[in-house]
Amino acid sequence: MSDSPLPPLREVIARHGLSASKALGQNFLFDAQLLDRIAAIPGDLTDRAVLEIGPGPGGLTRALLRAGARVTAIEMDRRCLPALAELEAAFPGRLQVVEGDALRIDHAALVGEPFAVVANLPYNVGTALFTRWLSGEQWPPRWTSLTLMFQQEVAQRVVAPAGSNAYGRLAVLAQWRSTARLALKVHRSAFTPPPKVMSAIVHVEPAAMPSGVSARVLERLTEAAFGQRRKMLRQSVKALPGALDALASLGIDPQRRAETLSVEEFVAIARALSSGRP
Ligand code: SAM
């Protein structure tokens, strides 16, 4: 599918006066080839529902539509809406744009069917949404995959293996019932204006949820354990009722620190705590 009748993005931005707003974390992508590569990460999107957060002037949105997706897009900056309305007209029935803050919208209710998420978001909004998508007891979730642009340092924390410096709460949350991979590194010069640091795209797909584990319990456990990551477990998790007994019954040395525990070990402790019988 081609978007040749559409004017070039830079022209759209100039015509609608869309100077990038720092407050909204706006760094735009214009390179159609790069955008097509990003839209290909979730796999074949033909006739699939995609939720895009932060379409801005619509570069990534165009690529998703070219890939055959049906897109629902949430954008907070109303200056972008006229440009996005042109895109809605060029792809009739395939794009729905919603004005609002993605942090305050119920995504499942908005899309109404399982959806792939694709987004290039400011750092703080991206991580807040990411942890929200990864939490909760309902599994599999309504999203079928998450394809998200992060600062490279954050992307590395998502995919970090146990024992590495980047390993922490984000890695355990992203890996205990999902697969997470670093799909593409994106040079800062690809953005207008270029951000200070390099970026990378992480792709996450839900996997089977380990049995007998409450997500809330695992979230509390990782919060406690990594909240004091330099401390030994016997200190960092002692306020969690049953946690020290769980370590003992699982044969996990309480003198270890959180970053040395594998994702499976966190799951085993959370399972013991979830059953209330460590
Ligand atoms: N997707 C475009 C691209 O790749 O060129 C724009 C990316 S820009 C980094 C981030 C976009 O997210 C901006 O258009 C900004 O207005 C929007 N945004 C920021 N916070 C948001 C929020 N809480 N909800 C919805 N959109 C948001």
Enumerate the strands of the largest sheet in spatial order, edge to edge or round the barrel: 4-3-2-5-6-9-7
Strand content: 15-25%
What is the C-level CATH assignment of the largest domain? Alpha Beta
Oligomer: single chain
Coarse structural class: alpha/beta
Number of domains: 2
Determine the CATH superfamily of the largest domain.
Vaccinia Virus protein VP39
Bound molecules: S-adenosylmethionine
How much helicity do the residues have?
A: 25-40%
pLDDT averaged over residues = 94
Could you say which overall geometry the principal axes of the C-alpha atoms support?
elongated
Number of helices: 12
The count of β-strands is 9
Mind telling me which CATH architecture of the largest domain this is? 3-Layer(aba) Sandwich
Task: Characterise the protein shown here.
It is a single chain. This protein is of the alpha/beta class. It contains twelve helices and nine strands. It has helices spanning 9-15, 32-40, 59-66, 81-90, 107-111, 123-134, 152-159, 169-175, 215-227, 233-236, 243-250, 263-275, and strands at 28-29, 49-53, 70-75, 95-99, 115-120, 143-151, 178-186, 191-192, 199-206. The strands form two sheets. The chain has a seven-stranded mixed beta sheet, sandwiched between helices. Strand 3, helix 4 (81-90) and strand 4 form a beta-alpha-beta unit. Helix 2 crosses helix 3, helix 9 (215-227) crosses helix 12 and helix 11 (243-250) crosses helix 12. The protein is elongated. The mean pLDDT is 94. The protein binds S-adenosylmethionine. S-adenosylmethionine is lined by residues 24-29, 53-56, 59-60, 74-77, 80, 101-103, 120-122, 125.
